[in-house]
């Protein structure tokens, strides 16, 4: 970035994306509590509509828990091919404004619009126009956060959800972070937030009282990042070439698996799915990981790293017996199996937040 120029970053986040697509395509689901994934008895919620969220239903929640919270919850099987198609359509809209697009998932992305294709100096107006075009072309709503860096933009996109946007201008950035509850900091999970509260850190202003060295001692490498964001600093660029770090697939079963032959058969199916995804992304990896969830929701993982590359289905199948042996499955009831390949040949190092720098005042309209 040129010296003296402050970046204009937008974080676009689709509103309850999977569930909203289902409600869009099935009139009978509109204005009703919907959970994508799982069933009334099995599995895990992949996404929940806003009507379901009012009852406390959230993604990654066991289906039985969700059904208990919301007895009228409607479960819908996911259609990932449709979600991918809509996501590609939305990404096409982004590309009308900038080539600096960093997708985080099917339903969210960062955009750097500092130098945008339409020559509009206001990132706020660009975000508004993007959301308008998404609604017109897909029938879906999106929320947006606008600010000077990725951390602040992502934080801002949650403020006026759903179907809204929020700006944190450069002159307000540090003051805004000072009053931000620690659990709302992107990159600080529940366990870390609990640890910080035990240290007397409840807001950004409290985090800012700790030196970089002290945070590194207490939190390891992440301490550098916490030191930066407490001061509203995040100089990671929007990376349009962001590479995924693993490729995998998993399956939750309608009935628990109790025979090793059934486990082997299901893993063969999953290996085929993973292999297909690797082929489509032209990827290979060094590490295969087996994930097993038992009927009591206990989860174990076992991994095997090789000197060569895991390139196809047979390579995966050759490693499965070793992983099963490591898992020591004897008497068991299995509700979920998964396989993933990591340490990919396409993998890059993530951009780390750089050392502390002094903020630069904005020279263009936000």
Automatic annotation (TrEMBL):
Compartmental location: Cytoplasm
Site (Substrate discrimination) residue list: 18
Highest taxon in the source lineage: Bacteria
Record-annotated active site: 108
Subunit structure: Monomer.
GO biological process: DNA repair; DNA-templated DNA replication; error-prone translesion synthesis; SOS response
Name of this protein: DNA polymerase IV
HAMAP family the UniProt entry points to: DNApol_IV (MF_01113)
Organism: Fulvivirga sedimenti
Cofactor note text: Binds 2 magnesium ions per subunit.
Protein family: Belongs to the DNA polymerase type-Y family.
Catalytic activity: DNA(n) + a 2'-deoxyribonucleoside 5'-triphosphate = DNA(n+1) + diphosphate
Signal peptide annotation: none
UniProt-listed SUPFAM superfamilies: DNA/RNA polymerases (SSF56672), Lesion bypass DNA polymerase (Y-family), little finger domain (SSF100879)
Cellular component GO terms, alphabetical: cytosol
PANTHER family for this protein: DNA POLYMERASE KAPPA, DNA REPAIR POLYMERASE UMUC / TRANSFERASE FAMILY MEMBER
Top enzyme category: transferase
GO molecular function annotations of the record: damaged DNA binding; DNA-directed DNA polymerase activity; magnesium ion binding
Binding site for Mg(2+): 13, 107
Function according to Swiss-Prot or TrEMBL: Poorly processive, error-prone DNA polymerase involved in untargeted mutagenesis. Copies undamaged DNA at stalled replication forks, which arise in vivo from mismatched or misaligned primer ends. These misaligned primers can be extended by PolIV. Exhibits no 3'-5' exonuclease (proofreading) activity. May be involved in translesional synthesis, in conjunction with the beta clamp from PolIII.
CC cofactor: Mg(2+)
Enzyme Commission number(s) from the entry: 2.7.7.7
Keywords from the UniProt entry: Cytoplasm, DNA damage, DNA repair, DNA replication, DNA-binding, DNA-directed DNA polymerase, Magnesium, Metal-binding, Mutator protein, Nucleotidyltransferase, Transferase
CDD domains xrefs: PolY_Pol_IV_kappa
Gene name of this polypeptide: dinB
